[in-house]
Each structure stands twice: as structure tokens, then as C-alpha cells.
Design goal:
The complex is a heterodimer of chains A (248) and B (264). Helices cover 39% and strands 26% of the residues of chain A. Chain A is of the alpha/beta class and 248 residues long. Chain A has a domain of 68 residues. In chain A, the strands form two sheets. Chain A has a six-stranded mixed sheet with strand order 6-7-8-3-9-10, with helices on both faces. In chain A, strands 2-1-4-5 form a four-stranded antiparallel sheet, covered by helices on one side. In chain A, strand 7, helix 6 and strand 8 form a beta-alpha-beta unit. The relative contact order of chain A is 0.16. In chain B, helix 2 runs antiparallel to helix 3 and helix 3 runs parallel beside helix 7. The mean pLDDT of chain B is 91. Chain B has one domain. Helices cover 84% and strands 0% of the residues of chain B. The chains are: A alpha/beta (248), B mainly alpha (264). At the A-B interface, helix 2 and helix 3 of A face helix 3 and helix 4 of B. The structure holds adenosine-5'-triphosphate and magnesium ion. The site of adenosine-5'-triphosphate (ATP) has 11 residues of chain A, from helix 1. The site of magnesium ion (MG) has 4 residues of chain A, from helix 1.
């Protein structure tokens, strides 16, 4: 068995009596791309936030690199977090900083790079998301899709071993979606990056997924490859993945 | 821990809100102190905030300072003349401006301008997950956003206050020479002659406390904002109300303390 990078055991989380995650267990191997499906409001974002320690689950354990995230001191948690990237569903770009400052912020604060190395890295990463021309713009001057890509650039610039993407391609046109998905795949190959990707987007999922899970009613209802899920005989899955809506 | 399922507007809800604010603010202040005594300090950020605060408030406090001195003389001159005490006018201006009006009015204006600004700024960073984003990139948002702002406020308000006092004294002089002849050096001499240690130093020291209040209340309200844009607006307005109240409260307490330590 390959090395496990994320282990989730019996995770539960509720908000004011509403159970969002109920006894969820999940393992992710090193270098794997895992896609998380689920209808809106089923707790996909909550799951990612629990993994990185932004939300505290009510019960269960989370291990990253065999270390228990919930039992860590702030310092240990920060050491782990330096190796994890998190793309927020909303992007969460720093409004008061330009694109360049947004990207260099984690580099300058957490790693000891020279000024030139930082500039090089910023430019190189912007090239990956095809937004070199935006380097000196403020976030308020960017379109929704551009913000998404800048947020992605900010997350991958530190080359983390584990990436948590919350809907990386929502709001992008099909062509950009394809490019971004290929970028995620590329990062996996080049840096042996592990990714957990929350998405509704079948184009993106079919490009990157090694394995997919489906959250429903606070549990992992289905698990398998994309082909297995999309060709499933299950009524609910057939409905979810059906393209009939477009044809009709 | 706040009880969340109370009906809006009921007495219980108001009391609950009141006590959870006091509790929350105390814990927040402790957190600040814990971080404050832990170097390194982010001098670059502190300086940036000080510049911004100075630029933002200088025009309005200049006008206010001038008007305080000007109106004070304008209003009290007839009364002083009635009592035959005109010669005390300069010292009256300086004493009231230095002991009370300067520090408190500057602090209240500072609260209105700065506390609301910090509340709104941090509040919008909270609800758009920017604070979470810092946290997950292993950058301590409390140190980066809160500690630097509170320090900047605490340093800048006393400076503004001294400046306001100067302007107010000049404003008083201008009001004075509108109706009578008095040369500037005589005026400043009588202003200075009446001042004692117990008049000046305690009131400057008290503005450090006011600056701290403005910074910490604005940061607390912003940092703990919730419920989207509505929460940002609420953070901004409630931080002005709360910091103004606390400034007035501490003004009476510290005023009493000053009189006790340096009886006049
Ligand atoms: N901080 C919070 N406080 C209270 N409830 C929350 C909070 N965060 C999430 N929830 C609730 O948890 C549930 C799951 O939310 P989550 O954001 O994980 O959904 P999601 O699966 O990411 O949906 P989407 O696809 O729309 O992003 C929702 O019902 C939401 O109302
Ligand atoms: Mg979500």
C-alpha cells in the first residue's frame, strides 16, 4: 500500500443541531488526486476546513503525515500548514494587496527567499495560470475568473505537498477549466503533489481524478473511479451526472 | 460562549449580548497582551498603519482643535469679564484644553474615524475568509492584523492629542485678539505659567489608554464579525459606540485617579 498522507477517522461535525458530516472516514495516498462530489450544502467545504484545522470537528481524528492535527500545538500546526495549500471557494484574495503582494506574501513571511527569487517565482506562477499581465493589478480590478486563477496561483506558489482545492474551476469558461485541470494534473506529476479537489465540474473531474467520493446525507455514499460513478446504475448518481438536462 | 438562540430585542438577549461583549473583549485583550510581549514586532506594518491613521485624521482633528480653543474663549470671555477675571482667560483655556477637552475630544473623534475603519476593514477580511486564508498559510493573522493596528493606535493618539492642544491654544489666542489687544508672548507666558506637572503628564498618559481602547475595540469587533456584509456594517458601528463609551468611562476613572495622585 502506498504511503498515506491524509487519514480521516470517524469524523463528525454539526452546526446548531444540523449534522453536516457524520462518521466520515477517508484515506488519501501520497501523489493521489481525489475528487469530492456532492450537492450544494452537503459539507464539502466543511470537510476541507476540518482537514486544515480551520474548523474543529465534534468527533473523530485527522492525521496528516501520521501526525494528529487536532492534538497539535499552534507551532506544530503551522509547520504542517506550510506544506499544505488551500484554495478557498471564494478565492479570499487579500483586498488591500496587489496581485504581486498577494503571491509573495506567504513566500516572504514563511520562507527565506531572496527578493529576486520571489519575483521569479511570482512571474513563473503567474505564467502557469496565464495571467502575467495582472501582476500589478489590485484584486478589485480583476474579473471573477481571473481572481480564481490568482487565488490558485497564490496557493501553488509555495509548492505544497498537499493541495486542498475548493472548486478550482467554478466560474471559468470550458477552455480555461481544461487548462487549469491540466495544470493540477501537471503539478501532481512534477512535484508528486497530492490533491483533494472539491468540484461539481465533470470536465475537471474527468481530467484529474484518480478516485472520487460522493458526499450525501453527511456520509460518503459512493466511492470509485469517475467511470464507475458516472456509469453507475444508481438512480441518484445517474440523475446527478446526467447530461439530459442539456439535451432536453 | 454566547447563547445564540434568544429572541432579538428581548431583555435577556440584550443582557446576553452585553456580557458576551465584555467577556469577549477581555479575552481578546489578554490575547493581545500575550502576543505583545512576544517579539519580533512587525515594524514595517506598524509604521504603515501609523502613516495611514495620521493622514486620515489630521485634517479633522486640526479643525476640531482650532474650534475648541476658539469657541472656548468666545463663550467664556463675557462671563470672565462679568466676574472681573479676564486675566485668567489664557490659563483657563490651557487648563481646560490640556486637562480634559483636548484628550477626550481628540479621542472621541479618533474613535469615530479609526475604530469604525478598523472594524469595517477587519470585518470584511473576516467575512470574505481573508483572515482564514492567512491562518492556513501559517501566518498568524492576530499578530499581523491586530497587534500592529493596536500598537499604531496607541502610539499615534498621544501625538495627535499634543498637536490638538497646541492648535486649540492658538485658536484661543485668535479669538482673544478679535476683541482685545494682547501680544502672543504675553499669552503664551500666562498659558505656561499656570501649568503644573499634574496637569500635563497624566492627561497625555491617559491618551495612551484611549488609543489602546480605540485599536482594541475596533479590532475585536472586526475580527469577530460574522453574518456577511451585514456583520461588517454592525462591526463598524458598534465599535464606535463601544470605544466612545469606554473612553468616557476610563476618562472619569483616570480623572479621579489623577486628582487623587496630584491634588490641585
Ligand atoms: N460556519 C458555519 N456556521 C454554521 N453553519 C455552517 C457553517 N459553515 C457551513 N455551514 C453549514 O454546513 C453545511 C455544509 O456547508 P458547506 O459549505 O460545506 O457546503 P458545500 O458542500 O461546500 O456546498 P457548496 O457546493 O455550495 O459549496 C451547510 O448547510 C451550511 O449551512
Ligand atoms: Mg463549498
Amino acid at each position: 500500500m502506498a504511503d498515506l498522507i491524509v487519514q480521516i477517522k470517524n469524523l463528525s461535525k454539526a452546526f446548531t443541531y444540523k449534522k453536516v458530516l457524520d462518521d466520515v472516514s477517508l484515506n488519501v495516498c501520497m501523489g493521489e488526486n481525489l475528487v469530492v462530489f456532492g450537492r450544494s450544502g452537503t459539507g464539502k467545504s466543511v470537510l476541507l476546513k476540518c482537514i486544515i484545522g480551520l474548523l474543529r470537528p465534534d468527533a473523530g481524528e485527522i492525521y496528516i503525515d501520521m501526525q494528529n492535527v487536532l492534538r497539535m500545538s499552534e507551532k506544530e500546526l503551522n509547520e504542517i500548514r506550510k506544506q499544505i495549500g488551500f484554495l478557498f471557494q471564494s478565492g479570499a484574495l487579500y483586498d488591500s494587496m496587489s496581485v504581486r503582494e498577494n503571491l509573495s506574501f506567504p513566500l516572504i513571511r514563511n520562507f527565506k527567499f531572496s527578493k529576486k527569487e520571489v519575483t521569479d517565482k511570482v512571474m513563473h506562477t503567474l505564467e502557469l495560470v496565464d495571467l502575467i499581465e495582472a501582476v500589478d493589478k489590485m484584486p478589485s480590478e480583476l474579473s471573477g475568473g481571473m481572481r480564481k486563477r490568482i487565488a490558485l496561483a497564490r496557493t501553488i506558489i509555495t509548492e505544497p505537498k498537499l493541495m486542498l482545492y475548493d472548486e478550482p474551476t467554478t466560474g471559468l469558461d470550458p477552455l480555461t477549466t481544461k487548462e487549469i485541470s491540466e495544470l493540477i494534473l501537471d503539478l501532481q506529476k512534477k512535484l508528486n503533489m497530492t490533491s483533494i479537489v472539491v468540484t461539481h465540474d465533470l470536465i475537471c473531474a474527468s481530467i484529474i481524478a484518480d478516485r472520487a467520493i460522493f458526499l450525501k446525507d453527511a456520509k460518503i455514499m459512493y466511492q470509485g473511479t469517475i467511470e464507475e460513478l458516472t456509469s453507475s446504475k444508481d438512480k441518484f448518481l445517474q440523475n446527478f451526472f446526467s447530461t439530459d438536462i442539456i439535451k432536453a | 460562549m454566547k447563547i445564540t438562540n434568544l429572541k432579538k430585542g428581548t431583555t435577556w438577549n440584550i443582557l446576553n449580548e452585553y456580557f458576551s461583549t465584555i467577556g469577549g473583549l477581555s479575552i481578546f485583550t489578554m490575547e493581545f497582551l500575550k502576543n505583545f510581549f512576544k517579539p519580533p514586532y512587525d515594524f514595517g506594518e506598524i509604521k504603515k498603519h501609523m502613516d495611514e491613521l495620521g493622514v486620515k485624521t489630521l485634517p479633522i482633528v486640526s479643525i476640531t482643535g482650532f474650534i475648541i480653543g476658539f469657541v472656548l474663549v468666545l463663550q467664556s470671555q463675557p462671563i470672565m469679564i462679568r466676574f472681573g477675571a479676564e486675566s485668567f482667560l489664557p490659563s483657563m483655556v490651557s487648563l481646560s484644553v490640556i486637562r480634559e477637552l483636548g484628550p477626550v475630544l481628540t479621542a472621541l473623534i479618533f474613535a469615530g474615524r479609526v475604530s469604525s475603519g478598523i472594524g469595517a476593514e477587519l470585518g470584511s477580511m473576516r467575512v470574505t475568509e481573508q483572515i482564514d486564508a492567512m491562518e492556513v498559510s501559517a501566518i498568524n493573522p492576530f499578530r499581523f492584523l491586530v497587534v500592529t493596528r493596536v500598537i499604531a493606535c496607541t502610539i499615534i493618539l498621544p501625538i495627535l492629542c499634543v498637536y490638538v492642544i497646541f492648535i486649540a491654544i492658538i485658536g484661543g489666542y485668535i479669538a482673544l485678539i478679535l476683541s482685545q489687544k494682547m501680544n502672543f508672548s504675553y499669552y503664551t507666558d500666562s498659558v505656561l505659567a499656570s501649568l503644573k506637572f499634574g496637569d500635563v503628564i497624566p492627561s497625555i498618559l491617559k491618551t495612551y489608554v484611549f488609543g489602546f481602547i480605540v485599536g482594541i475595540v475596533g479590532s475585536y469587533k472586526g475580527y469577530t464579525a460574522e453574518n456577511g456584509t451585514e456583520g461588517v456594517g454592525k462591526a463598524s458601528t458598534t465599535s464606535v459606540v463601544l470605544s466612545s463609551l469606554l473612553i468616557l468611562l476610563f476618562d472619569s476613572v483616570l480623572g479621579k485617579l489623577t486628582l487623587w495622585l496630584w491634588p490641585t
